[in-house]
Amino acid sequence: MAWHSAGTYRTGDGRGGAREGQQRFAPINSWPDNANLDKARRLLWPIKQKYGNKISWADLMILAGNVALESMGFETAGFGGGRADVWVPASNVYWGSESKWLDDNRYSGDRELEMPLAAVQMGLIYVNPEGPNGNPDPVAAAIDIRETFARMGMNDEETVALIAGGHTLGKTHGAAPATHVGPEPEAAPIEEQGLGWKSDYESGK
Fold it and tell me: Which of 15, 98, 130, 140 could cross-link to 103 by cystine, CB 3.0-4.6 Å?
């Protein structure tokens, strides 16, 4: 949750990132990359209720990431609070021209990514984990990874540390095929309004 909050940042226009708690709102809360993070945020609700406006949602999501790392024995550099929440979705951030999730009409020429975007497809925070357009080509994936993470302000060493470390400590993908996952929060039926990503797999996994 913390990485997916911070991971929307891009250097092209300085937009995105963890500073406003935008992960709570559309369209970011409905991105396929953020599936089921609504449940993680719900786990933080008792803390938010207890402390109210003494801690913002933006800070709480990042603090949760710090606490998770520390609980696994990782020594963090500390926590820097002070992020202010917004209470409406940002309407002035350009996430791409696509109208469907996972479309990638953001390229021109020989796979030149449109500025100021960093993510390779609509609804992802960075690259497609299955490879470019779902093609498991490691060379093509490396090119996408290098460009995307550079647009997030990272060099190769930082990128490797983040990807390897993040997938060592934070991999929590479900065991069920994607066909079992229901619609995103913004497309869920009214009786599930604001929830979304309902699974009919019924295994508890």
Answer: 98
Tokens of 159: 């990128």
The closest of 156, 108, 102, 149 to 126, measured between CA atoms, is 149
Let me know if 4 is a catalytic residue: yes
Single out the catalytic residue among 4, 167, 173, 180. Answer: 4
Domain carrying residue 61: 2-87+95-169
pTM: 0.83
Q: How far apart are CA 179 and CA 182, in angstroms?
A: 8
CATH number at residue 42: 1.10.520.10
- The per-residue pLDDT for range 5-57, each reduced to its tens digit, is 999 999 999 999 999 999 999 999 999 999 889 889 999 999 999 999 999 99
Residue 205 lies in a domain: no
Q: Which residues of the chain have pLDDT under 70?
A: 170-176, 193-194, 203-205
